[in-house]
Amino acid sequence: MKSQLWVLVVSFGVMFNSCQTQGTIAPTSVSPHDKPAGIPETSVDTTTNQTTTEPVEDSTFDPASISQEVFDTTKGEVQALIEKLNLIIRNRDYEAWVQYLSPSYKTALSDSEFLKNASESSRLKNQNIILKNLEDYFLYVVVPSRANDRVDDIEFISKNRVKAYTITNKGQRLRLYELEKTAGNWNIVN
After folding, report:
1. Is-contact 31 12, C-beta < 8 A?
2. Which of 52, 60, 84, 98 has the smallest count of CB within 10 Å of its CB?
3. What's the rounded Cα separation, in Å, for the pair 3 and 108?
């Protein structure tokens, strides 16, 4: 069962990565998660996907400018957020979950073409599930795959934007979320 869930997670992540890099969703067999340490990073998040015009990285931002204190504080905030999201997801609380999505990300996940393509996954097709809206995406994609995430590390990509990672037992660094802090609150942006 766990291996089947992993295949599903990989399949969705690949579709989402394709959308991010090509503007459309195209199923592929490439792993959706980050790499073992020392291999160039390819980031994919299985719960999130958006085609966005938001800057992913501030070209003048230097991650070394983040103090250890700010890093530790931010990591603690992100870990607490992910624990809260895990509970929301386990409780299947769509209304609470959607509040953590940035507006552009919410729009991207609600896009009918995105939902149509996401419905083409083998798991959803085998269960005759067709995603009609963002709530369907939450219930049939997010809930089965994202209820027990753990943040082991973060990476600053701008002053208020981080990538959250988990480290597997095999040492793989997997990206969970890309988050941005605006008006004092963390939101999922990618």
Report:
1. no
2. 60
3. 29
Whole-angstrom distance, CA of residue 35 vs CA of residue 53: 26
* Tokens encoding 43: 């980031």
Q: Within 26-152, where are the H helices?
A: 68-90, 94-98, 103-110, 112-118, 122-126, 134-137, 143-146
pTM score, whole prediction:
0.67
187 sits in which H/E element? strand 185-188
Domain span at residue 49? 2-188
- Kindly state the helix (H) or strand (E) to which residue 8 belongs, with its residue range: helix 2-22
**Which amino acid is present at 92?**
R
Contact in structure between 94 and 110 (CB atoms under 8 Å)? no
Phi-psi domain of 30 (left: phi exceeds 0; alpha: psi -120 through 50; beta: other): beta
Q: How many domains does the chain have?
A: 1
